[in-house]
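Question (not urgent): is this output format expected?
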Amino acid sequence: MLGMYIHTHWGYNHPYSARTWTLADWNGYLKALSDLGYDHVMIWPQLDAMPAIPTESDRAFLGLLQQVIDRCHDAFGMTVSIIVCPNTIGNEKSGTYCFRNRPYFICEERIDPSDSVAVASFLAGRRLQFSFLANADGLVIIDSDPGGYPGSTNREFVDLVRAQVEVFREHSPAGEFVYWMLAGWESYCRFWARNQEGQEGQGNMWSDWQGDDFGETLTLMREAIEPPWAVYGWLDRHTEAIRTVGVPGGAVFYPYGVIEGEPTFPLMNWHPDIAAQRVGEWDRQVYTRGIMGNAQTHCLQLPHTGLLAHLALGGTRETFDPAAFADRILPGVGDVVANGWRALECGDARRIESAIARIEDVPFPRAPGELGGLLFGDPQRFVTDLVDNLRIRRAFVDLREAAASGCCMRSQLAHFLAVFAPYQERTGFVDAYSGPLAVGLNQPLTTLRDPHVDAVLADFANWREPAIRHGIVPRLLRAIKGVADSSA
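Got this back:
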């Protein structure tokens, strides 16, 4: 199996957010994935912040997914799984938002797995939600992020998982269950307990991670859940538990973030050596079922999408030709596009500027090629995004150098805003992020010691009130503008 996770957590603009895709978008993207060798997709339909009785906009999205699943089956020979969190569903605020714009952390409710009344109501909601997706091949449930409940046990987690699997199989009797091993249920619940208690220095779910959940969880699942079921994993602790306990349906290697991390601000990425190293950690004797990739902004992560397929199907970092791959997307300009990709994360201002000049010398738009579905119907948008991403990375170089020299950074920040703000407005992404923007922008900003900037930066790590991070990007840009506009 070679799979792709289509992530819908964050609501932003078309075609950057998968929430916004039309059937034509899905069709083009799925065709390109299939042509590259992908044969499975996993979709997060956001049932976890959706009302138990879906709204009209929810039903429209779920109806679209029904058609998408049928297209996967009938046109591309792909299997499809849907993913849910173990104990989250929409709260009383969720119905006041349309699906496309619904902010997750404002609209989720985490139920107590030990509360039988709450569990019964939760399962009734899941039963109705699942009824819209009865043509899916499988159900995936993650053990952490989101979800969790302070004090809950692995047994309660497995009991709630089993109940959801049974509800799903009422609609899809042959449906496979997949347990996505991440941080571990009790580990994640301890993290939420620390935040609920208001402890200082709350960190994140990995700060004091023990990774001691997986053997017990797999043992309980073997006792409680009827096959077919399998697991996703990749960390050493995952592998150890899989080897020790065994899994009836086998395991899939899922090195999360190999294509794109999450949450990240939508920026193009190109770090093939890191991707190849992570895929090279795949133990095929343990993870016999295949490999999964994931992306948050699929229309930007073209080179890594192609690279993962190449590596998974037996190729190497050295035999992947990004220019030939790009030429299958935009024929005749593959070398120019690939040169732009290579320059994205080089950190060399002159090389970035040269890549921009080469792209701007080529007449666009051009007709897409056989993998044109990766462009989501707009080659010019893709080229514009590539140039803007290069300009943003060029601004990162200036910010890094200014921070290292200890200068005031006002002019560099003003230039950054000039190239970044229009791109941010086009993508529409406003929420918290890690990844390249956190390194290229947030890290230099910490050297300013500006109280307004620092107050916003502090909210990026606020897990006590995660909803406060919705809309954080415009807040940060306003704080940066205040510094850039300040007098000497």
